[in-house]
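Lab notes, practical 5.
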Amino acid sequence: MMARTLPLMLLLVSACAAPGRMGADGASSRPILDENDLWGTVPAEADLVLWADMAKLRSSPWTRDSFAKVAAGGPADADPRFDLIRDFDRVIFAKVPSFRDGASVLIAQGDIDREGMSRAFSKDRGESVATSYRGAGLLVHGDEALAFLGQRTVISGLTLAVRAAIDCNFGVARTIESETWFGQLRRELEHGRDATTMVTALYIHLQPATREALVREMGEGGSVEDFAGRVDLTADLHATAIGVVHTAAEARDLAARLTELLRNARVRPSVEAFGFGGVIESVRLRAEATRVFGELAISANERAEIVRRMAIVADTMAAMRKSTEEKNTP
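Output from the prediction step:
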């Protein structure tokens, strides 16, 4: 699980504070987004949440070359775009299937070009309706919306999910921070760790369909209820993953099976071709109560080869992105 999650977590993917105010319904709002905390805007119903510090990822020697290559493959026209890699400092992607199958919301903070993003949103979708919701500027086209909070925060996605995120920020709806599964995993991931070195974190509350997909792809995971992982980048790379099951026996069994899967994956030609054999060998798994913990540490001395291999993946992504843009250009 760690071997499959790490590339996604690596390549992924503030508002100005304002005094509390009274909403139209008389409810007291909390201040607009804390610059360093986006969690208070994620709806409680989210079952998959990916957080990334894009500013750190752009500057880290582990990822900056790959990010630069992906960014270079972006659109060449002069019309400003909603570009997560180039324009934002922190982002959260949340999947909220209870609103509608496949519903999601993206919350991002950085140097926002409101006019440019508004033009890009309307250009890609057609005429949009400009409105507002709880003091946030809102562009709506069909069931999609783009919203601006404060000066440095933007929310996009299904209109229902965007409004729910604004409700959370406004203080009239429950956020994911109120969910027991999320709170426990977040505390475990953060315990004894330096918050300033974390560049990405992933939290998943597995629904039946997600669990079935995991079993189809990996042949494992049928007993997993929750999953969380984080990546820390300093001179070294450190990744941690936690899988939650029902019983200690299930945890021991899952840890043993995952160890065997990693051993088998180590000798696959594709793994060797991309140079990830050593990475897989570095993974350490252990069962503790109803948790399976995975740890991965890669030293700065091993970084050059890993970065080179990641650059190959980034080149492929950039080429695919450029090809897609060319096909969509009239």
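Observations recorded by the TA: The chain has two domains: 14-46+53-175, 177-305. Residues 303-328 form the longest helix (26 residues).
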